[in-house]
Amino acid sequence: MKAINYFAVIAGTGNPESSISEISTYEEEYFKRSTLFKDGTIKPSQTTSQNLIEAVSECFWDMVKSSVKQESDSFRSRLYALEAEWRHSFPHMRELNRDELFERVRADVLDDAILFSGTSTKEWEQNLSQSLWKAIIPFVFREIYLKNALTSSKVGFQTQIDIVLQNWLDFNVTEQCIEVAKKVMIDKLKECFTRAHPQYTGNTYKDL
C-alpha cells in the first residue's frame, strides 16, 4: 500500500519504567533539539506520536465520510427507482406522505376490527365446532375405531376407548383446541379483510 505520509516517532526513553506521559515529553523535547527538525528535513507535523494519531484519526474519518456518502447515494438511487416503479405500477393511486398513510391505515384497521367484532356468537360456535370436528376425525377413526375394532367383547372395546379418550383429554385436546381456534380466527380475519377490501384480492402484496 502506498503511504499517505511518513512520521518520525520515539517509542520509549530507554527506561522500561517510563510512563506514557514521560515518553511523550521526552519525544517532544528530542525533536525540538533534533538536527533533522531544525534543518527542515522533517516537518513539525510529521513528528511525535500525537501527530501520528491525529493523522490516522483524520484519515479514518475521511474514509467513514466517503463510505457514508456512497451509501447515501446508493439509498437515494434505490429510493428514486422504487418511487418510479410505484408511479408506473399504480398510476391511478395518489401518493401519500407518512402522516396521510398512517391515518388511512389506522382508519382501515379500525373498520376491519369493527367488522370482525360484529361476528355473531352463533357463527363462532358453528365455525369452531366444524373446524374442531374436521381436526379430530382422523384421530377418531385411526386411533379409536380402527385400533379397537377387533376387540372381542363390547366391554373390552369400551374400556380401550375410555383409556384412549382419557389420554387424549389429558395430553392433546387443549393444544388441539387452541390451534383450531387460532386457525378459525385467522380465517375469519382474512374473510373480513377480503370483504372490506375486495380491490386487494389476488394481488401480489405480501401477507401481513
UniProtKB/TrEMBL annotation:
Gene3D superfamilies (UniProt xref): P-loop containing nucleotide triphosphate hydrolases
Residues in Dynamin-like GTPase OPA1 C-terminal domain copies: 125-197
Domain of life, per lineage: Eukaryota
Protein's UniProt name: Dynamin-like 120 kDa protein, mitochondrial (Trinotate prediction)
A Pfam family that the UniProt record links to this protein: OPA1_C
Span of the signal peptide: none
Classification lineage: Eukaryota, Metazoa, Cnidaria, Myxozoa, Myxosporea
